[in-house]
Amino acid sequence: MIKKCGYVALLGRPNAGKSTFLNAVLGTKLAVVSNKPQTTRNKILGVFTEADSQALLLDTPGIHKTQGLPKMNQVMNKVAWSVLSDADLVCYLIDVTQGWSNEDALWLESILKKFENKLLLLATKTDKVKIEEVEQGRLNILNRFQDLFEGIKASGELKCQLIGDQPQLISSKRPEEITSIRQFILSQMPQGEWLYGEDDLTDRPQRFVCAEIIREQIFRQLGQELPYKIAVVIDLFEHKNNVTNISATVIVDRDSQKGIVIGKRGSRLKSIGTEARISLEKHLDKKVFLELFVKVKPGWTENINMLSEFADLQEPSDSK
Ligand SMILES: Nc1nc2c(ncn2[C@@H]2O[C@H](COP(=O)(O)OP(=O)(O)OP(=O)(O)O)[C@@H](O)[C@H]2O)c(=O)[nH]1
C-alpha cells in the first residue's frame, strides 16, 4: 500500500474557530476552546489517520498584532508562523460572521509570498448566519482575497498554490461538512510513510492536554483580561486504583489576581475545579481526583524562562 502523510497548518486570526475545527476533524476534544480570543497559546498537533492517509493537523495560536502586549504574545505569534516551514497545506480560517479584515489581508499576503505549498481558505461558523447571508459573506471574502491574490501574482511574488473552492464554507458544528473537508484534506497529503501510529491522537503528553483542560475552565469562568495572565502547571499526575490523581498549580501574575481566581471563600476556585474535573473525567474516561493551588509569579508573561516553564512556550528559532 502506498501511504500518504503530511502536515496541515491551521492559521487565522484569534477566535476564527481553529481549535473547534481541529476537534471536529479529529472527532474528539484535543484543543481547548472558549469564546475569548487567544485561548490557544501553543501549537498542538492532532493526528488523523484513515485508510492509507495520515494528516498531521497543527492548531496554532491566533495571529494578532502584538504591539503593547506582553512578550508571551510575540512568542505565540512566532509559534504560529513557525508551522509554515513544515506544512504541506495551510488552511487559513476566516470567521464568516466577522468577515474579511485588514489583518487577514496582512497575514495572507505573507503566506502567499512566503509559503511554497498549498493554501485553502475556509470560511467558518456558517451555521451562525442565515443561508442568504452565508453566500454574501463568501462573496465578500472571495472578492477581497482575489484582489490580494491578483496583485501579488502580477508582482511576480506569488509562491503559494491555491486548492479547492476559495473560500470553502464550513461549520464545525455540522458533521457532514467536516467529513467532506476531512476527505479533501486527506486527498491533498503527499506520498510518504506515516510519522505517527494509526491510533495516535497527538504528540503532546497526557499532562499537557490535562493542563489545557483546566486552563480552558479558567478562560471560561473568569472575566475578559485575567485569563491571559494565567498558566496551569501539573505537579502530580498518577493513576492509582482506577482513579487519576491530579494536582495542579494555577500561576498568576499578581497578588490581586490570586484573590480573583480563588474567589469569595474559595468559591471561584471550587467551581473551576468542579467543571475541570468533569471535563478531565470525560477526556481520560476515568474517575479523577483534582487538587488546585494558586501561586503568584510576578512578570511571568514577560520572562522567556518562565514562559517555557509554565506555558511550555519556547521561541522558535526559524520563524519570522
Ligand atoms: N456556531 C459555531 N461556533 C463556532 C464554530 N467554530 C468555532 N466556534 C466558536 O467560536 C469560538 C472560538 O472558537 P475557537 O475554536 O476557540 O477559535 P480559535 O481560532 O482556536 O481561537 P484562538 O484560540 O483565539 O486562536 C468558540 O466559542 C467556539 O465555540 C462553528 O463552526 N460554529
TrEMBL record:
Q: Provide the binding site for GTP.
A: 12-19, 59-63, 124-127
A GO cellular component entry from the record? cytosol
Region G3, as annotated, extends over 59-62
Q: Which residue ranges does the record assign to the Era-type G domain?
A: 4-191
* Compartments, as annotated in UniProt: Cytoplasm; Cell membrane
The segments labelled G4 in the record are 124-127
The protein's topology relative to the membrane is: Peripheral membrane protein
Q: Where is this region: G1?
A: 12-19
- Region described as G2: 38-42
Q: Which UniProt keywords apply?
A: Cell membrane, Cytoplasm, GTP-binding, Membrane, Nucleotide-binding, Ribosome biogenesis, RNA-binding, rRNA-binding
Q: Which PROSITE patterns match?
A: G_ERA (PS51713), KH_TYPE_2 (PS50823)
The UniProt record lists the KH type-2 domain at: 214-298
One annotated GO molecular function is: ribosomal small subunit binding
Q: Which domain of life is it from?
A: Bacteria
Q: Give the family, as the similarity comment puts it.
A: Belongs to the TRAFAC class TrmE-Era-EngA-EngB-Septin-like GTPase superfamily. Era GTPase family.
Supply the NCBIfam families for this chain: era (TIGR00436), PRK00089.1 (NF000908), small_GTP (TIGR00231)
Q: Which proteins does it associate with, and in what oligomeric form?
A: Monomer.
The record's function comment reads: An essential GTPase that binds both GDP and GTP, with rapid nucleotide exchange. Plays a role in 16S rRNA processing and 30S ribosomal subunit biogenesis and possibly also in cell cycle regulation and energy metabolism.
Q: What is the protein name for this chain?
A: GTPase Era
Origin organism is Silvanigrella aquatica
Per UniProt, what is the name of the gene that codes for the protein in this document? Answer: era
